[in-house]
Input
Amino acid sequence: MLRYYKVIFSWLLVCFLFGCENKAKLMFTLLDKDRTGIKFKNELFDSEMLNIVNFPYYYNGGGVAIGDINNDGLQDILFTGNMVKNRLYLNKGNFDFEDITELSGVAELQGWCTGATTIDINNDGFMDFYICRSADSNSSRRKNLLFVNNGDLSFSEKAEEYGLADKGYSTQASFFDYDKDGDLDCFIINHSLQNYASGEQFNSELRKRYNPYTACRLYKNNQGYYEDVSNQAGIISNFLTSGLGLGISDINNDGWPDVYVSNDYNEPDYLFINNSDGTFKEQISERTDQVSLYSMGSDIADYNNDGLTDIVTLDMLPEDNKMQKLHSGPDNFNKFQNLFQRGFYYQYSRNMLQKNNGDGTFSEIGQLAGISNTDWSWAPLLADYDHDGHKDLFITNGYVRDYTNMDFVNFSVNHIVKGRAGEKVDELNEYISKMPPNPLPNYIFQNNGDTSFKNKTQDWGLEKNTVSTGAAYADLDNDGDLDLVINNVNEYSMIYKNNSETVSRNNYLKIKLVGTKSNINAIGTKVILYYDNIINMQEAYVSRGYQSSVESILNFGVGKQSQIDSILVVGPNNETERFQNIKPNQTLTISLKNSDRDTIVQRLSRKTIFATRTLDKVIHIENSFNDFDIQSLLPNKLSRQGPCMSVADVNNDGLEDFFIGGAKGVAGQVYLQESNGEFSFKPSRSFFTDATSEDTASEFFDADGDGDMDLFVVSGGFEFDENNPALQDRLYFNDGNGNFIRMTNLLPKSYMSNGCVATADVDNDGDIDIFIGGRVVPGKYPLAPKSKILFNDGAGNFTKGQPIQSKAIDNLDMVTDAVWMDINNDQYPDLIVVGEWMPIIVLLNYKGTLVDESSKYINFPSTGWWNRIYKDDMDGDGDMDLIVGNCGLNSQFRSTAQEPLTLLYKDFDQNGDIDPILGYYINGISYPVVSRDDMTQQLPFLKKKYMAYEEYANATMGTLFTEDLMKGSSLLTSEMMQTIYLENNGELGFKKHNLPIEAQYSPVYGIVSLDADHDGHKDLLLLGNNTATRIKFGRYRSNHGVLLKGDGSGKFKYVPQFESGLNLKGDVRNVQLIKNDTKESILIGINDSRALQVFLNETKNND
Output
């Protein structure tokens, strides 16, 4: 019996120890309020005068400010309250805090307090607090507050005395030296009023009007008094300005601080670039491709250790399917196009990560990085919480009552209708109570070190559901790591202790900056750590996230590094200081008072690999057509496939010329190259006559054997009726001088929307034959017309092959591209075909007959959204390898063989139209992608099944339709979305290789190989993008020209934009190399835009 009890005790002991071990493995521990003494609760009290109905920012919460107010080496905490008093807690050490609010006086003149900023306003060595206020209709009770530290734990309010009693509806302030005169100026963001946020947010005329209470404000420090210089400094604002996030950073790396403002609603974010002359220029549209729609908090920091600061903005897109469907209305494609045309910018409701390209532009990669969907989010804080040398991302989350829930929106509409009809409706408090509560866990993402993040919310102990708004990080217990302080709504604030010193056990370095007498904390300093070929950089700005300011001491994680090789400190006025061989795990105090003021850090200028010019006369003009009016559930438009381009010497002068195809209603054009490298337009009556067609692909080849280059043009598009004569492909004979005449009787009659052409001598009879890939049946996506091979009789007469010759291509789906190459070295060209929802298909040519041998050569699940295939010998082994362009990974879609993207299709409502239902996996379950509104608009009978959004939110691809309705349906899958490199291993098939992550930024439509850096190895240039998408998906525009440097063995490395010199915007649809006597350049065809020509610079870039 004793032995039995000993066994039980031992088992219990093991369980206890194991449990403790699990607890210790959590990166963060939530400390009880009785343990810390911090019992602040930002509690709201609904009233008839003030509630969520009459003040839309009622639930936006309060902020946090961190600072050592008594210089004892411990960081103290200020919380702002909306309807309760601010609270100031003195840090006594070991997470023991004392409430000194009454002694300090920071709760005087309370009002609706929002953002809090820590600043030593008078440079006396004691931290002060600047507090923003909002909500009150009386402007005198909205004046912002400045609490100046008296040095005895008490504060005196002096905003009027300093000129900082701003009367706007203020969210946050940040102090920085924008004009580099040595003292700190102030930027304040204000937010719009209710009627401009909800009732008239689509009125572009309001963008021409100014409201002083909602405008952004820049205050210049003039010997201690702050003067509003917003207008003369170029700080624009209007009635719709609604600033919720504020970030200061040297965004373009020119040594001058810039300003980023996150705007809620339809007013786009502002990016104020410092002109270095006391003025700014707003450049959000010039430097970004798209921004968040409901932008909330933001942070700016170098998250990928390339020495450039990146931007995070937060929005409201949920992670799980149910919450997405509960908040998704109709896609409203036409409404958004109208907004864009009226001057509003491209905004989409999701978190965004703007990766700095180093050339003044940003590529938005939040979806690829894995941080785009965190629901109703507020404060993003980029910091190295596990000290591995990479900045992680913490995000606060939640909302008290969710009035954007679509079922509640419908209830609200009915409530209004009944009220106007005189019917009895709910009292205000009862109406508000019917808004669904929306507490959510905060998020924390661990930086993977490869530009992406991994969700560690549960693993790191942050899974508690709350409504959290403002937050800040600080080393509260001086153990070297960053703890978290969070302001919650209607719940006690939270303190999370960071346990990284025992969990990850990485090393760190803290840097305390000492500045000059007019900027005592050296705000604006840039500190760069160099070690192990790593650049670890931070900027000293404390206003971060949302309505909050963080600890001013910089905290670097350095992983297992035992020594930092060097530290470069660049002061606010560009004065510099260097330190060598610094040991980690210490606080290093750096004084800038004695720094070298003669050493000015300037942005390095280097010669780029490429130079670009616009071909002003070569323009592709897209016709106006909305594919979604024809089939509302399409994933993307199909009518914007051009321009196609082809290159050849058409007039036999030794210079290569080119053809560029036209959209419907616009003729294709030939341009002849001149000896000086310029291009001249060659008119053609035949092209003009055929302008009714849409040119989707083209190829020059000698069709009739007379020695000159003839032209084949594929007709396609989505804007035609099925079997429209304008869908006939066309063959033009060349007279030898570049004059083209259409040969109307040499091709079989075929009115189909095709997508590609590839030519080769298929039957080895000495002439060139044609493969034509069928793209889509107009109005019946995803049905595809039959692809075909046309055999040449030698004189340019083309006929379809015998059935046995074309059997392998009869059942191809939506073909987008194809190449001929001799895979098995039998002297017959074989065909590799790709397409949308298609696998990569390898058709071996057995003496003119094609046989599908894909299973032998493609040894991986390969269905995808393929756009382009390109062949070249990339590894120097003498055979042709393949690069295949796909959709990429910067989207909401993640597909694998086990969890593919799917397209279920059938005429489900028997109205004669194909209904394509796109499905994707979330957390192991396949759901329909589109919203209830979009689904029921296409299939009205589903309204009866899904009366409420809540019901539709639970629908899966397996439960959407009954078993009877599923009969006769078809299913397509896409198992991978990556653009890939396929190494040709002969009889062993093609080996798949991943390309650098930058290749996945956007869909790839253009591929070309060349030796860009003159090292003797072939490099790759990948181009693409796609803006012809559903509004839900947003624009795929993050590829500005991706140059991948090859090493000759099939391995590639991304070349940053500031080195390549590529800054290519738009939807690239075709890329061609073109030569003259001495040079080779690249022609780039862009949909609905002017063509570009890219040149290699003369000398190799040795920097």
Residues 89 and 99 are 5 Å apart (CA to CA). The radius of gyration is 32 Å. Residues 1-23, 598-604 have pLDDT under 50 and may be disordered.
